[in-house]
Amino acid sequence: MSHGMPLTLNEHLATIVPYEPGKPTEELERELGLKETIKLASNENPQGPSPHALEAMRQAASRCHRYPDGGAYYLKRRLARDLDVPVEWLIIGNGSTEIVEMLTKAFLPPDGVSLVSEGAFIMYRIATLAASAPVCSVPMTPDRRHDLAAMAAAVAPATRLVFIANPNNPTGTRCDRSEFDAYLDQVPRTVLTVVDEAYREYIDDRDYPDACEALRNGGAVMVLRTFSKIHALAGARIGYGIAHPDIIRALEKVRSPFNTNSIGQAGALASLDDREHQIQSSTENRRQLNRLEAELTRRGLQFLPSSTNFVLMAPGFPGREAFQALLHEGVIVRPMDGYGFQDHVRVSIGCGPEMDRFLLALDKVRTERGLHAA
Question: Domain extents for the chain?
Fold first, then answer.
């Protein structure tokens, strides 16, 4: 094909702003002449994977000349046992984001609409627009949570999917049980509510809604979860969805064969055996999160109290500038202007020394701008 050949893209692609990935740390270090850069940009688990998962992945790597198990037979059966649901209620994805894409392919007809909260995880919007369907956005509450009452009221005859991230990325905020129950009571069963629980393992609170319970009680709900966060397998790309079998059968029709790799499946399966690793990851995250929130409070900086492994904070000057300034100090955070939070950055919770580095760098770049440092 010659470079001058005109190609016609689908017109709806013009409305999509792509997901913004960060550059590899090694490339940033090379460009900026930095060493020992720390990455606090992608909400990863700094503890690393379970040793059981690492060993299982090493063994699986020796067999990677074979195609993976396309149906994730063993992983689905283990999850079904742990979750107390039938195997037929499960689907495995290349990260839970792939299941979001499957949902928009399977459930959005040309006249169908997705309903999302403003400031919610951006992939819901991208996947919907990529499926040539419109997105209806509902403003968040003043404290930056999903306004479930307003979302229920916004459901229209064309609404097919509602995406609820609980807790939400990038705000770190969550909905409680009474809000969720009231929402489900109001929304018709012709609408599938997708509850994304990527960060649920970081929460220990009876007031947190049990979306799986709603599903078992016959609710038109799908629950998404992931091995990327508490299990520390973000690079292995394994997520899963829980829903009634008719929903799963529809998704299987649009699922790519061999969509999850054998190494990731092995790591995910083995990580489920290491409960101690999950508890340690959650405990250490809570310790460092509490410390970071206390330090930000001491500095008089605004942030949203978090139920996750990250904090959305306002450094006191534009977020994109703060991202660049911190980058030159060897600390990578995530600017949030793509979500409409121009004055904020999102900071992942790292290990203790990483949080020390972040706070030192934050004080330095604020002092350089004449802002008071602690």
Answer: 11-40+276-368, 51-271
